[in-house]
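Section: Multi-chain targets

For targets with more than one molecule, the full set of components is provided together so that the structure can be written out for the assembly as a whole rather than chain by chain. Components appear in the order listed by the source. The example entry contains two components.
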Amino acid sequence: MNRSGNHSGMTPARFVRGLGMAFVIFVLVSPTILFFIWMLSLSLKFEIDNGAYPPILIPERVAWVNYLKIFQENNFFLYFWNSLVVTGAATILALLVGVPAGYGIARVSAVKSAMVIMIARMTPGLSFLIPLFLLFQWTGLLGTLLPQIITHLVVTVPIVIWIMIGYFETTPLELEEAAQIDGASRWQIFWLVAVPVARPGIIVSLILAVIFSWNNFVFGVVLAGRETRTLPVAVYNMLSFEQVSWGPLAAAALVVTLPVLILTLAAQRQIVAGLTAGAVK
Amino acid sequence: MSGLASISAEVVDAAQAAPAKPKLDRRRSAGYWPFIAPALIVVGGVIIFPWAFTLWMSVEHWELGGSQQFVGLANYLRLLSDSRFWDSLWHTLVYTALSVVAPLVLGTVAALIFDSKFPLRGLLRSVFVMPMMATPVAVALVWTMMFHPQLGVLNYLLSLVGIPSQAWIYDQVTVIPSLVLVETWQWTPLVMLIVLGGLASMPREPYEAAEIDGATGWQKTLYITLPMILPFMMLAVIIRSIDAIKSFDIIYAMTQGGPGTSSETINLYLYNVAFSYYDIGYGSAIAVIFFFVIVLMSLVLLHLRQRTQWING
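Its structure, encoded as tokens over all components, is:
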């Protein structure tokens, strides 16, 4: 528990302490591991096995068909595509406006304009949704993916701006000043000097924007129609229409969240750095 | 939505904590506004305009498809005598308080653990962080199956240790604690990461001094580590409070505010009024009040956090 190293070797007291720590680690991590194992188990069982008591962890017959079903009967290819389009567009747009904004805010120390976004971030998504819903209805955009792309900017733009402010504040000004003396314009300095240095920050903000846009549910619930559902909305709708058919439902839940989990594991270091960047400084 | 406020709060913090940079003179700094303008336009369009619009709608009697007329503060006055609103406010307070305290305790313990060295630490930390990145709706649906009173795995696990079956989300008394269990499962990692960041930035000198004085491991944790990470714990409290009070996905997907209205928080009530009953004017008034509740809570917490800052010097 403490940060200082002990100098002694393996004493009995130390062994007991190690055992105690192993136990605490086990208690902390097992809910996560058990949850995902159980999710996988549910998704691979037929209804008979899912309804068995006591519950069965590893079934005798594996129901791969659950996965087949959600793509064949529930149109999951379309919803997957919708999710890709909404998340992709909302993330790219956010990077396009957010990276320069983060740079500008960091350089002029425009903390006030930053505070505006901060207060806006505290507002619940639903309160943006009432007026935007009406607006999209009047303009006849509701049947398209555009309303969701636009509202997802509420999620992605602040993430990108915040993380980029943090990065540009730490990048050294000397290089930029040298470039300015050499006669480079502001945009040249931005593109050729500042952006390459801040590339790790751009990647972090990209990853986080993708994850939080992908996971977003509330905008889709209000704005998506039958053809424009994203994956989280589609999986929720399965619940209401299919009664309780656990196997395909769990399979769908896994399909929705798997891309994000893979991304999390692959980019774990960058994500942790991004989320704790402010706190560490 | 959860987790986002986190980032903003952290970075604002960083901005405040960062040593003052030599300011650019006004003429030079003006040249940076073209960088910021596009983002300001976007923010204006999707955040500030809807806000102004909401304020305006909140003083109208306006049902979707029906007529629309100015009613002044009638919507706000209606809130005062709306017992369902007060119930939802109470549910929100209970839900938020529990969803802050439980992850705070567990996340701090986890941070202290993950700060020490042990085999497989990197892998276990990756696993531990996974819940907060998982899609909330997907998580909620699997928990719903696990909560099932007859077939759910949770009641089976309880029966193994001799605890009687629970009704979990299907009972008015246990529904909020059950939802908080899911919220805690998902967001403890965020608290862990914040506190872990604090631990990583701590100076070593106090420990060396304490060791010379013969302090035990527990004494060091209690009298040195905890006071020094207190500001980071407060930061976690702020972030968690803002996220928990706005919680929607988990509650909507699992109970839709039920059974009855026993887990209906303000956010859920707001959704029902605006998008189930299509009472746009009244829903807007709830949205405005809800926003002020969040701002008020944030200000109180920020004030409290200032008071813990002196420990940092």
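The radius of gyration of chain A is 24 Å.
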